[in-house]
Write the structure tokens for this entry.
Amino acid sequence: MIKTIAVVGCGISGAVLSAFLKKNSNINVDIYEKDLFDSKKINGIQISPNGTRILKKINFDNFNNQNLCKINEILIRDFNNPSYLARMSVSGYDSNYITLNRANLVSFIINEFELDKQVINKEVISIENNKLNFKETSSKEYDLIVLSDGIFSNIKANFLNRRFAYSGYNAVRGFFHLDESNKNNINLYMGSDYHIVFYPIDQNNNYSFTYITKSEESLLGNNYYENKKINFLEKNKFIVKYLPKEIFLQKEVYMWPIYKTNNFSFGKDKVICIGDSSHGFLPTRAQGACQAIEDSFILYNLIKNNCANSNNFFKERIQRISKIQKKSENSLKIFHFKNIFLRYFRNIFIKIICKSSLFSNFFNSFIFNYKYKL
């Protein structure tokens, strides 16, 4: 019987798991977070129905709707054609497709369940069996240890000898204010070896944008959390005419290398990896946050049924995670087609898929209709 759990990292996966445990169990949970949480940091995320369906179980209906957008459609464009190719519906499900600021979601969960009372500001440096070793040379043993400290987890790398890899792509990210009456769409522009996505993240006309381009090597050194400030307008004048001018007026625009996990790490025995600690995706299908939420919910159910170990978690997740990784990588290739004939047939296929909400919903059903039952 599990009586004590350590959660290392209080991002989306760690916060969601801790909320489920606090709401539905008497298990003692300690949350270890070495960095003080920055509630002002802006990072737009998309959460499709498979994620919002789970969030509702931890009081997400109490979230301030002013701080999110409910998405109806994805507007898809080819940079060779300024008008949109198609409108893909994402609204025909039993739960909403939403966009919001990642920090607002984590802050909501922490406040809703008073998780700050369980957060311990200590740096975990290693794991031995079921014992956490801290930088202060102290240690503590738990019945279950959950690693939710992200793709760059040194703890996971040393404990499981599993590490991340550079994907071959860089992401330029920024935020802008746009007085736009239609706030319910995600905008996708497909180019040649690049694509751009931008969408609203709240009801105050704040938008997030991401420009992903192929690169042969990471622009950064060994500090993987580091980013590089760039002049987006100067480097990308060739696409100015297709995008809102407000994007190019932003001074706080940064380029990040994109990393991924080639080999998934679900843990070992009573040490379990969830979220990006387990699987880092390319962002093309916008499933990073959703799969972290799914991981947390599934692990909670395994804990509730007293069968939580890395082997059972692996069995529950490996097939779905593998398929979503494949879909993400295939989508990136499709978005970045250079050959004019491939682009032509791609565009026809997209138009057919988006012709009706029935086709669109069927196309997305594998991801969006996921409902977990143990």
